[in-house]
Amino acid sequence: MENIDGYLMKYTNLVTGWQYRFFVLNNEAGLLEYFVNEQSRAQKPRGMLPLAGAVISPSDEDSHTFTVNAISGEQYKLRATDAKERQHWVSRLQICTQHHTEAMGKVRCCACIWAHIDSCMLMFARITHTSILFLHASMHIYYTLNILVTTMMSQAQGQHRDLIQSIEGLPAAPGLSPLDQDLLMLKATSMATMNCLNECLHILHLQQVARQRGSLGGPTIEWLEPKLPDILKNGSSSLGSFTTGEGALEGSRLELSSPESCSFSGQEDIDAEDEAEDCFTDKEEDLGAVEEERSVILHLLSQLKLGMDLTRVVLPTFILEKRSLLEMYADFMSHPDLFVAIADGSSPEDRMVRFVEYYLTSFHEGRKGAIAKKPYNPIIGETFHCSWKVPRRTDASKEPSQGSPDPATSQDPYQVRFVAEQVSHHPPVSGFYAECQERQMCVNTHVWTKSKFMGMSIGVSMIGEGCLYLLEHDEEYTFTLPCAYARSILTVPWVELGGKVNISCAKSGYSAIITFQTKPFYGGKLHKVTAEVKHNTTNAVVCRVQGEWNGVLEFSYTSGETRVVDVTKLPVSKKSVRPVEKQGPTESRRLWQHVTESLREKDIEKATEHKRLLEERQRTEERHRAETETPWRTRYFEREGEGWVYHKPLWKNSAFKS
What we know:
By secondary structure, the chain is α+β, with helices and mostly antiparallel strands. It is built from 12 helices and 26 strands.
């Protein structure tokens, strides 16, 4: 299915007659929308017709007219310019109608299931309410409430059995099966809920026994915690806060700052001589944890709602990558030779194409393996520093090669330096900056990562903007970032990118639109991307790109020339990072070193406790700042309007001003 749009004539009434209107077939929503004209498309539609259950009929009046009859009784009488166009619209509308009609039938077949769900939810609410009464009951009504709770549990178990039988006994229907992913999720959630209720009933009995002992003069006991897996003990506000008895972990004390030291007035001195080539080569290839801890994920999913903001939700430790988000941003610079080569472009057009090439090849190496795992959420004030050495080219105009890097000349290599800082906690905003002084170029970016729960996937919006400065050419390239999606979070999670990215250079008049396409429900390729580079003044497209952002990209020029870039064969430059012992206390690798070491040792419980201590410190310092009305002071980035800018960028350095 594909979205189509265009002008059709719409019959209104005897007085008005036929009018030209701009129609849009929205396949995803199953709607036929129309607007006054194409220019008003960004506004609210003038009208829309749901296609589920609709009937699309070519008219007998002539070869141009057809009707769309909605299930509600509303009708659109439309006319195309010719018979061919009518056939195109009718066939596309019929395909969309069939798809959404089948989906509607699936919903109707599941009506009995939802009735059971409502009944189950009501039963669970009643059990919860009665359990609270049970906790506060005096001895003389204990037995009455005990019988009531036991009876209600028996009823809930009956509801659960009815639910399972209803799913497994579904009538045969197109696109409907007891093995449907949503129905399997429903069965698992119901089972998990019943297990939790049984645990709660067990705890209530233990608590009552403890009270009986207390009434006989014996010592009383504290509330008994439910038997949840240790992996859930992560300090999450939604899952409850757990501690591990003595608190501190032996042999691995964290460097926790006092509340008074929660802001920093100076910058750390970074000595490039201390940096060494990175030996951190962990690949996230272990699928075992995801499979083994599926019940934990189901427990977490049961607390989430569609569209819910996940910013404040603490996720289980076993799904974490062994690096901070700030370091992940640095890994997008793993092809610094392509970054430096942008300034080698002989013309504004060439430089824009080079920037698009660098942009498209930057995402592949930013992922550590094919498994979708989540990097650490940076602590406010956390920083990350690194650099790359880029061999100088003997021929500055030479295109970057696919093989090994060009041999360096006798001159010293270029140096690309990178710094990132978490400048805000709520919302979570990161700023990062990279520069190559020898080439008089730098890039400044601020990103707010906003994640949402989408059922079987998680969507992350990269809200923010970046700007590349080529001081030698007096050019600025502004760009946005795509959205990221973690798919199949219950089986083998994987990442895909989606959305449109805009790149523009006001001085040269060149711009680019990059479209990261998500895989459609039926068919289609994974990780597909397309791009167009055009000259705004003439509206002429000078280069087109198509392929996969983690595979092969084909560049096609107006001259007829084509060029292929295989992202997987590009040489990767390892960054240089100072050893942990020489890093400051708020630098990423030193800050998270105990969590990372525990994950490498596959000691999830220990990693969880270290992570909890870091998050608790952040909350303590945040409360202290709120109580003392002390604003947070960043180290390397300053607020400018809606964005964040590095405090000493090249474009503000008089030595580099043109």
